[in-house]
């Protein structure tokens, strides 16, 4: 499972991909948790691989920056 972001919008592509992945998991597990469990685990694995230094993720929220995992 994957999605393509519009070309030419690279500055925010990582944060948009992370947010999209999170909402994708939420939708998959809300509607068909048993059927989608294996796919969701792959997405979670990808999300955790995107963790930036200092144990956080880039944020799509206003103000930008990153979200720490304390």
TrEMBL record:
Protein name in the entry: Alpha-macroglobulin-like TED domain-containing protein
A GO term from the CC aspect: extracellular space
Superkingdom assignment: Eukaryota
SUPFAM superfamilies reported in the protein's UniProt record: Terpenoid cyclases/Protein prenyltransferases (SSF48239)
Residue ranges of domain Alpha-macroglobulin-like TED in the record: 11-61
Entry's transmembrane regions: none
Classification via InterPro entries: Alpha-macroglobulin_TED (IPR011626), Terpenoid_cyclase/PrenylTrfase (IPR008930)
Organism: Petrolisthes manimaculis
